[in-house]
Each structure stands twice: as C-alpha cells, then as structure tokens.
Amino acid sequence: MPGGETNKTMTTMLSLVDAFNEFGLIRKEPVLAMGGGLVTDVCGYACASYRRSTNFIRIPTTLIGLIDASVSIKVGINHGKLKNRLGAYHAPIVTFLDFTKLTTLPIGQVRNGFAELIKISAVGDITIWRLLEKYGEQLIETRFGRIPGASAEVRAAADEICYEGIKVMLELESPNLHEIGLDRVIAFGHTWSPTLELTPAIPLRHGHAINIDMAFSTTLAWLRGYISEGERDEVLCLMHRVGLSLDHELFDEALIDKGTSAILQTRDGKQRFVVPRPIGTTHFINDASLDELHATLRIHKQIVRDKFDGGVGVEAYVDFGDLGQDPSVFAARAHIVSATLINGSTVTSKRTLNGHNDDVLVY
C-alpha cells in the first residue's frame, strides 16, 4: 500500500480489500502487516472489515509502532481532516517487535517516536523518565543504541526504556483495550493535538503535535500547583533538548476552544485532561474553564519564548514519507483550493479522498 498520511483513507483500505480478494485469501489465513503505525492501522482496518474479521500479523518498523501502536488493538483510517475517525478494535494474532528496524529510520522519525516515550513516562513511570532525561539525545542519535558504535551503556538504557515502556503500556491498556473506561493515562498529549496536528498547511508530525499538547498541559499542572517550577522546567527542558516542539503559532485560543469542544465528544462530556502530579504519576482535570486555559496559554507561550527560544522543534513537519506526497506541492495545492473555495468558485478536480472530493477537504 502507498505510505503517508494522505493515503490513510477509505480508498487505500478498499484497495487492500480488493487485493485480499484477488489473492484468494482464505478464511483463517493471516495477512502480514509490516511497516509503521499508519500501515498497520490501515491494513488492520481492512482485515477487521474483510469477512467481518480476518487475522493479521503485525510487524512495526518505527519507534511509534514499536512502543505505542504495538500494544493497542485500534485500527482505522482518517476521514477527510478528521484523524482516525473511522476504525475498529481488532487485535492481531501476534505482534513481532524487532528494534533493529530503528536503524532504517532517519533521526527525525526517531525523534517523532521519542515523544511517545515522554508521554508514557511523564505521567506513568518515573524510572523511564529518569533514563530519558539522562540519555535523551544519545538515544535519538544512536537509534536507541542500535547503530554500530553505540555504547553498551546507551544500548542497555535503551533496552530498559523500551521494554519497560511496553510493559507500562500493557499494564495500562490491557484491562481497557476497547476503551470502555475513558480516564486513560496514555491520553496525555492527546487533548488538543488531534486538532493541531492537521491544522498547518503542511501538517505537524504526530510526535511534535502531542509534545506541544504535553508541554502546555505541563504548564497547566504547574499553574495549578500540581508540580513545582523546577519540575515544569525539567519536563520542558528534556523536550527542548531532544528537538521536540513546545509551541506553535497556530496553537492559539481559537484552537484551544475547538480542540476542547471536540475532545468532550470523544470523552463522553468530560475533559479528562491528563497532567503530571508529580512527574511519573497521573492526574485528571475535569474543571478547567476556557478562561483558565486561555490564561495558561499566554503564560506558556511567554515561558517558551523566554527560556526555550520559542520552542520550535527540529524537523517538526511531515516529509514525503510521512505524507505520501511532496509537502510543498501539497501545501501549494491546498492554498489554491482554499482561495478557490473562499471565492465561491467551483472546484473541478475529481480526485477522491475517503469517498469525497479531496479538494474540499484539504486545508
């Protein structure tokens, strides 16, 4: 299947269904899904749909896929600009984890996945947090100790981080695989990021989007007295050191309002904002007003400007591999389409995305 976020669509999913049919896939024969989280998501959804339930074997090849997506049984696709809006709960019959696959990734993709480990540790495990804080840059540069010449110390730390991170994920998610319970620790960083990630003309990488969300949530925790100023800066400093984004110009009051409204629907009318209290443990906020969030945003942006050079991340935006097409062409086309729609003219392109004309769905 073609890679990239623009191909996480119903069209791609149905093309896999057609491929299963043409191949003559029999009832209990498993499909081998090998790739990043996007590939396993789309292929898993095709398997969930084909004959109502077809087995698949999952072999993730990215850090996000190995640490985060490998534990979840969620599969799915985007619907227009709505991320992961269509999907199912469909577990693979087995998942194989091979961390040598990290040597195939560019550093930007390793950094992208590093945010998921911050997510797990900052609100779930202080031991993992301390290792990330000690070895952060080295972990990314050595692909978690897998490239030739990496020190035994970094390799050992990487192994402990990855294994313990997966263990924490399993402990948190196994009792709640179908998300019946909505107070989810691993929702840290996933309140406003679903709205933010696809807002720029060239979308943010997932790890950078959730990191901005986590950084803001950390400032919120500090202002509420849940963590100290030192703890706040400890979190923000690690994020900044490894090159993850702390803020974005489009992360503004309007986006906070929009993201909050959207997440209330997902979380059954409650905010369930995840914050550290203290680092390594979780607290859920359900009583934040928009006025408080707006005030927090102003303070957060000031802190990031004063202490962290504006919080601009390294390689924060998707590239061809993430998107499935040249990002500059995507952005230029989106700008033309946006202007066309604003002027009230008819869009003539017939290329489809999720069964719709994608010209009316892009930014």
UniProtKB/TrEMBL annotation:
Lineage: Eukaryota, Fungi, Dikarya, Basidiomycota, Agaricomycotina
GO biological processes: antibiotic biosynthetic process
PANTHER family: 2-EPI-5-EPI-VALIOLONE SYNTHASE (PTHR43622:SF3), 3-DEHYDROQUINATE SYNTHASE (PTHR43622)
Domain 3-dehydroquinate synthase N-terminal: 2-110
One of the Pfam families matching this protein, by short name: DHQS_C
Organism: Auricularia subglabra (strain TFB-10046 / SS5)
Domain 3-dehydroquinate synthase C-terminal: 113-249
Cofactor section: NAD(+)
One annotated GO molecular function: metal ion binding
UniProt keyword annotations, A-Z: Lyase, Metal-binding, NAD, Nucleotide-binding
InterPro entries: Dehydroquinate_synthase (IPR050071), DHQS/DOIS_N (IPR030960), DHQS_C (IPR056179), EEVS-like (IPR035872)
Protein name: Dehydroquinate synthase-like protein
Gene3D superfamilies hit by this protein: 3.40.50.1970, Dehydroquinate synthase-like - alpha domain
